[in-house]
Amino acid sequence: MARPVTQIHGLQVDSDFxxxxxxxxLPGTDVTEDAFWQGYAALLDGFADENRALLxxxxxxxxxxxxxxxxxxxxxxxxxxxxxxxxEIGYLxxxxxxxTIDNGAIDxxxxxxxxxxxxxxxxxxxFALNAANARWGSLYDALYGxxxxxxxxSGGFDTARRDAVVARAAEFxxxxxxxxxxxxxxxxxxxxxxxxxxxxxxxxxxxxxDADAFVGTRTDGDDTAFVLRHHGLHVELVINxxxxxxxASASGLRDVVLEAALxxxxxxxxxxxxxxxxxxxxxxxxxxxLMRGDLTESFDKGGKVMxxxxxxxxxxTRPDGSTLTLQGRALLLVRNVGHLMTTDVVTRDGxxxxxxxxxxxxxxxxxxxxxxxxxxxxxxxxxxVYVVKPKMHGPDEAAFADRLFTHVEQVLGLPANTVKLxxxxxxxxxxxxxxxxxxxxxHRLFFINTGFLDRTGDEIxxxxxxxxxxxxxxxxxxxxxxxxxxxxxxxxxxxxxxGRAQIGKGMWAKPDALAEMLAAKIGHPQSGxxxxxxxxxxxxxxxxxxYHMVDVAARQDELSGQPVPGLDLLLTPALALDPIPQDxxxxxxxxxxxxxxxxxxxxxxxxxxxxxxPDIDDVQLMEDRATCRISAxxxxxxxxxxxxGRDQVEDALRRMAAKVDAQNAGDPAYRPMAPGFDGPAFQAxxxxxxxxxxxxxxxxxxxxxxxxxxxxxxxx
Length: 716
What we know:
Number of helices: 26
Shape: globular
Domain Malate synthase C-terminal: 586-674
Binding site for acetyl-CoA: 119, 126-127, 271, 308, 535
Protein name: Malate synthase G
Domain Malate synthase N-terminal: 17-70
Main location: cytoplasm
């Protein structure tokens, strides 16, 4: 059934959406409803056709690249000829002269601090609030409740594990904020005077090795917290001898609290399933609530109703009696959708309009509520709006985004470059032209990052006709990937991002394997990156340890001036030059089919855009559209080059559908795919693989959106 629409300035706007803008978004912004929609109509007039032309340019370049690979398919790889071809067709653009970004006022969480970053679906209010409140995390809880200290206890409270946690935390304190003599494990009491922190060991006072590490003291109920600082991150020693944990410690130390998630991306894109006006209203309403500061979510936990809301700021008393306010929440960023998809929330002449334009207008309008605050907690003290713009292909698209947000600022009455843009280096044409992309956004850029999953999906799709790609392990070890990661950091440093913007790295996708994360993810700050993505508040607390181990600013100084890896390695596809063993092919076929189905069935049938999904071995993995994209592109590539056949794909999908049904048997909202294999979810999985070569850039959105809309229609 068609939804009611309202005619506004030549646009057909979903009536509920128009009411949402009028009644919730605009009051308090000084933007009238007429100005908003008149400005949006002008935005569509000025940018919709260009948006379409940029997508057509993507497709034309891909056609040319496909034809080149087909023409050279039986010849040894000729990197020089390939690069010359990419120059000729305009895929590669000239490098800009040396420059330094000039992005104006930027919050310290972005410009000068280094620490973890969360990414959560803003459509889920509880997740959104948990991420915002993950600025501070209990190290005791993170160690006790994860596998870092061994298998997580399943019974009652484990005192031996408690003691091991306390000892591990003391080791951290000795490394990050050491005493002049002795160990934090031996402290009998903590106190403070006008000279700083005083620890008592064997009845003798001992001060910190770095007296400047002491920030001050604060109280919260029966807790007294001594606040320290190391590598720009705060650490709280929480004292409460009456607490069960504090009572077991001679010093009364009941917890060590770390400043953890400095920033959190509230995602409107890969981790959400928003296909119509009610979905988009839900997404925008939660972002609006975060920007107003009044978002709450109530839920049942153990038979008790709990209400989650944004944490307050922390007030610390310094040794001289003055006070310091510390942010109680992560700095919130919002990820818009990319340039590809259209939406029927707003139509013009009966035709859907670009969804990315709607995201730009509405998410920035919502953020005005934060910009207009004169008292109480604020998101951005610098007066900025941080928008992450994903899936852009090259500098022309980056320049388009810059002009788009200039128009949005003008319509909404904001100063130029109030909106800061995060450039996700996840598409091959952006990676190959990264300096030019940064240059296009130099007055509003606030971050660049890398991400293996989407970047690999585009790597496969771009070179789909070059041949069969190596399996996943081979892809991770291929030279292009290291060149990609290293170029990102070196180009960012050369453009002056140090002290002005984030350089980020990708997600840890195993939310329950945090011992493995703790061993592996230190490589991100060691690479010179100031942030990296984590899947949960607990992971953020543990990843924060890495930023105490590595002085990222010093590491960036060491890396600055080093040569940027050349393009040749980046542009060499990771093709399987030798036959891939059949058992590996079949294993990866089943693994990819199961992963696609496990994710897609929740997306299509339940509208869940991101969740922990058990893999083929029942290991929980964090899945979103990026993980789905890489799996679909792998199977499409191997199908294209005859490593697997269509019958094998169909068989694997059916067998893995039965497995996914079994894995979800305990979910009362789950609709089994077997034995009919005819529902929208199963058909979406088939679409992603069997039409993977023709999906634009290998993206999953067109197939998923269509099948989700079908499922919603069937459900009434």
